[in-house]
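User: I'm putting together notes for a lab meeting next week and I want to include a structural view of one of the chains we've been expressing. I don't have a solved structure, so I'd like a prediction I can at least talk through. The sequence is below, exactly as it appears in our construct file.
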Amino acid sequence: MADLRVLVVGCGNMGASHAEAYHHMAGVEICGLVARGASRDVLNQRLGGGYPTFSDFEQALAQTMPDAVCLTTYPDTHDVYALAALAAGCHLFIEKPLATTVAGAENVIAAARLARRQVVVGYILRHHPSWQQFVALARDLGKPLVMRMNLNQQSHGQMWNVHRNLMQSLSPIVDCGVHYLDVMCQMTQAEPVSVSAIGARLTDDLPEAMYNYGQLQVRFADGSVGWYEAGWGPMISETAYFVKDVIGPRGAVSIVARHAEGASDDVGGHTRTESLRVHYAELDEENRFKQRDRWIDCQDEPDHLALCLSEQRYFLQAIAEGADLHQHLQDALNSLRVVLAADEAVRTQRTVVLGGEG
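Assistant: Thanks for the context. Below is the predicted structure for the 358-residue chain, given as structure tokens.
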């Protein structure tokens, strides 16, 4: 069988990571690198050179005629580029979020079904063994669950440029929030029913209607509740930037990560766990804990490149086997629906009641 020819569109942090994964994979050929700026040449050099480079997506799509497109551009281009790739008969790996609107995401899903092409959304935490264990342990805590999560980033230098560009179209609680809402939905296995949120604009470097700090609160049909907080910028505090904590009637489980203190905007650190702490709530006759907290060592875990390799192997397998990705895409749509409702709640200062298919 001939190698799968993949066009990489977007050569920033995640685009470079996925391109490096393809570069190391058997059965895959990168047929082009696409970016508007110099990042495509920087990435080409990093990979040893020799890959065709393009500044225009449509031109690259027409000239290379790829079997698949890896789309990691800014989110406001996702649905337009995705529809073009599917119309050209390509399978699609697309970084989260699937689109910047629910309607845009639904259009991509419908186009994939019509074209009979596979679409995989980059939910990298689903491929991380420690995060898989985190979800499984949370499910054993009973119901309802209280889920507390954040990812605040004290971004500066190039990462502040990246974040400012992202915030031309999306707030931090939307862009990163889809990951952690997806985790919450996996933990509860219940329908989200309402969302409240607050936000603040802490810099004049943004469009007037945009905010760079936000927190959402979501309620689920089983009584579970969760909050997610995200802030980007040089003013953001690192005192509690990485909280991943779940509480249930039987106890709690937490990700304990001390590794990236002072480097909250390091993309590679956002999936690292270091250890899991499991707390048991059961008491004896004298109200003393029956069990000590259990620590699970997560030091021997995949790095960022290994996780990207895992994602791309999943993508290739889905193509080769014609996997049913209906639930995968529905999950991506559901998490997007929640964070966009949170964005609406910030702007209207009202709780948003969720409805429709879940």
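A couple of points you could mention at the meeting. The first strand starts at residue 4 and ends at 9. The chain has a mean pLDDT of 93.

User: Perfect, that's what I needed.
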